[in-house]
Amino acid sequence: MLSYMVRISTIVLILVIVVPIAAGERPFALTESREPCLDYNSLKNAYFGDLHVHTAYSQDASTQGTRNTPHDAYRFAKGEEVGLQPYDDRGKHARTRKIDRPLDFMAVTDHAEQLGEVRICNTPGMDGYNSWVCLMYRWFPRAAFFVMNIKSTNAERFGFCGEDGQWCREAASGPWREIQNAAEIHYDNSSACQFTSFVGYEWTGARGEGNLHRNVIFRNADVPSLPTSFIEANTSPRLMQALDRECMDKKGNCDAITIPHNSNLSNGLMFQTVRLDGEPISKADAERRARHETLVEVMQHKGSSECYYGAYGNIAPDEQCSFEQLPYSTFLGKYFSSQRTLPEPGSGFVREVLREGLRQEKKIGANPFKMGFIGSSDTHLATAGAVEEDNFAGHGGAGVPANKEIPPGLTDNVEFNPGGLAVLWAEENARDALFSAMRRREAYGTSGPRIKLRFFGGWDYPETLCASAEFVREGYQRGVPMGSDLATPPADKADKQLPVFAVSALQDAGTAIKSGNPLQRIQIIKGWVDAQGQSQEQVYDVAGNPDNGASVDLSTCKPLGQGYSQLCTVWQDPDFRSEQRAFYYARILENPSCRWSQQICSARGVDCADPSTLTEGLEACCSAEHRPTVQERAWSSPIWYTPE
Q1: In sequence order, which residues have a C-beta less than 8 Å from that of residue 269 and are 6 or more positions away?
Q2: What is the share, in percent, of the chain residues with pLDDT greater than 70?
Q3: What angle do CA 584, 589, 592 make, to 5 degrees?
Q4: According to the model, what pLDDT value does residue 169 have?
Q5: Which H or E run contains 586?
Q6: Is 80 exceeded by the pLDDT of residue 484?
Q7: CA angle 297, 173, 244 (to 5 degrees)
Q8: Where are the alpha helices (DSSP H) in 293-407?
Q9: Cα–Cα distance, 75 to 80 (Å, whole number)
Q10: Is the pLDDT of residue 399 over 70?
Q11: Secondary structure class of 289 (helix, strand, coil)
């Protein structure tokens, strides 16, 4: 096994001379007319964003007091301050928030379901405004939250929507246009390319107890006249068929991907390999899914969906799978203790799904689950990218509603977290370049910090690559980046029988007033299918030090111990078998730090040995469920190896 780690200040992940080029020379299709970006980089830049953001146009956000609009969400993402609920009788907000650093890109993804109903309930004079549902919505919003969610989960509309839901669909056209207009207004299509917006929405599907949610992200301003909701397309294949029919197969430049999220709450239904009629999926089914779902949200405020925590079958437990796992496996478990069950193998965790994809590829000739990784927030306050542990206002959507008063203690339910970020490696900060990165899966997710992560796979990377100023250039020239397929070695490299992976990470650079947390280690996770057709996995520590003694002073939240500002290694798989399908991805772990909940508990002087310090709203600080520390991380998209 080759293992080469460098810890010298001269290593850089991106060392290129930026040379502007003509727009027609871009290595991706151009679907919009705009100025070329001056900071074009053929070796790609890391752009940080959030592709899961709800505003007052979403029913669940609005019934919990959110008044921020898509315009406000974009303003916040670009660094402006916004107000947060609760509001007084004069409409004055009680709280404000501002992101610590602007994002590079963002999409508003309000729920397609009941987009029109929310508009009707908020607009005097519209038919349905005085319906019992809208009266409940305005006077008893918390009750309306449950009533309206049950209706949309059943793929039904209320009577005031008229025959076949026509009036509510017509009402939805207004907010849908406003979502598009906000995206266009805030899109920087000048040569500065400082911020990119995407038009999108959330398809909020569910079946029984299982979450099927997908975010739909469009490439440009060419989008359907209305978003397809779960009411019109009540399965994910029907959603994809609708997108083909209304977008991708039409004349023009419409293009879209769907991003599954919270598979940790899907009860195993998010990624099925059988149709509704019980028949196995076909190769065509798998190819359609792979075409639409190039990314999966591995991290957001309702937990991490990376992997199941615990031993099962012949799979050894991975202790890092316990990271931000919810204590229930479906949405019902959140609200009803009788329905609360712990996650189990087969619940829908992404690593297991990737392994199933290898099995399906061997079985039917196509991999339906070839997905790269991103993170996002799923904020329901329109606070895109507000993922700082030390300034967490909650997310609203499934947590503590603050439509009447500020939560007296913790700002969200203790099992939730601030969420993550999506990172795209692209030549420039423009829609075509970023969307192309999503399509080819050259993306990664973080649990919040802005770690810069590169991951390449090839057959002949030198051991000394980490010390080279040409690390990135050679990474591309000699192999493939994250999200790609690693083919069998060419004839002139037939003697190179073991794949080589090069991975490099830089800690979050932080801000002028707050430094980033040091890195602890790099891991590479491998999944494969053995000769008996069984899927397997293995975790390798390849750089850094898992026993570096780093810790946190919980009374002050001051980090203790040493770590790394950067890590880099060139690694070969010691257990590689050329006949076995496999995938590899990198996981970067920071030193431990205080979780958002502990930040509040410490700031309020909570001492679990002194019950008098547990004032209202802080009781969870000393609960068995409370996790005082967190080990922030980043996950690269996988690289797949397929034998000939």
Answers
A1: 207, 208, 210, 211, 212, 348
A2: 94
A3: 160
A4: 96
A5: strand 582-590
A6: yes
A7: 50
A8: 332-335, 350-364
A9: 5
A10: no
A11: helix
Tokens of 474: 């050679």
| CB contact at 8 A, 76 and 50 | no
Residue pair 302/264 in contact (Cβ under 8 Å)? The answer is yes
3-state secondary structure of 235: coil
Name the 3-class secondary structure at 214.
strand
What DSSP assignment string belongs to 135-201?
A: HHHHH-HHHHHHHHHHHHHTT---GGG-GGGHHHHHHHHHHHHHHHHHHHHH---STT---EEEEEE
- Identify the sign of the CA torsion 640, 641, 643, 644: positive
How far is Cα of residue 479 from the mean position of the Cα atoms in its chain?
A: 26
Specify burial of residue 607 (Cβ count, 10 A radius: 0-12, 13-18, 19+): middle
Ranges of H-type helices in 189-331: 236-243, 283-292
What confidence score (pLDDT) does residue 3 get? 41
- The strand pair at 551-553 and 558-560 is best described as antiparallel
Q: Which residues pair with 523 in a beta bridge?
A: 541, 587
Confidence of residue 6 (pLDDT cuts 50, 70, 90): very low
Superfamily (CATH) of domain 3-641: Metal-dependent hydrolases (3.20.20.140)
The Cα–Cα gap between 373 and 309 comes to 19
pLDDT score, position 505:
98
pTM as predicted:
0.94
Angstrom distance (rounded) from CA 567 to CA 5: 7
Pairing type for strands 639-641 and 582-590 reads antiparallel
Quick one: CA dihedral 287, 246, 430, 180, positive or negative? Answer: negative
Cα-based distances in Å from 441 to 107, 161, 273, 445, 627: 18, 40, 22, 11, 32
Specify the range with the lowest mean pLDDT, choosing from 55-69, 390-404, 459-473: 390-404
Half-sphere exposure of 31 (CA within 13 A, CB side): 22
Q: How far is CA 180 from CA 61, 168, 177, 214, in A?
A: 19, 19, 5, 19
Q: Which residue has the tokens 């020239």?
A: 477
Tell me the two tokens of residue 37: 């970006």
d(CA 44, CA 430): 12
Spatial separation of the C-alpha atoms in residues 98 and 94, rounded to whole Å = 14
In whole numbers, what is the pLDDT of the chain averaged over residues?
Answer: 91
- DSSP per residue over 95-123, as a string? EEE--SS--SEEEE--BSTTHHHHHHHTS
Among residues of the chain, what percentage have pLDDT more than 90?
Answer: 80
| 3-class secondary-structure state, position 343 | coil
Give, rounded to a whole angstrom, the gap between the first and last alpha carbons of the chain: 24
CB 49 within 8 A of CB 424: yes
The CA distance from 143 to 147, in Å, is 6
- The residues with which 46 forms a beta bridge, in sequence order, are 425
24 pLDDT band (50/70/90 cuts)? low
Which structure tokens are listed for 275?
A: 């149709």
Please compute the mean of the pLDDT values over residues 339-364 and round it to a whole number. 91
**Which amino acid is located at 472 in the chain?**
V
Question: For 244-392, where are the alpha helices, taking DSSP H only?
Answer: 283-292, 332-335, 350-364
Dig out the tokens for 247 from the structure.
Answer: 């977008």
| Alpha carbon 632 to its chain's center | 14
Residue 19 has pLDDT above 60, yes or no: no
At 164-208, the pLDDT tens digits run 899 999 999 999 999 999 999 999 999 999 999 999 999 999 887
Token look-up 């730090």 returns 593
**Three-class DSSP category at 426:** strand
In the structure encoding, which two tokens stand for residue 156, read together? 């039904």
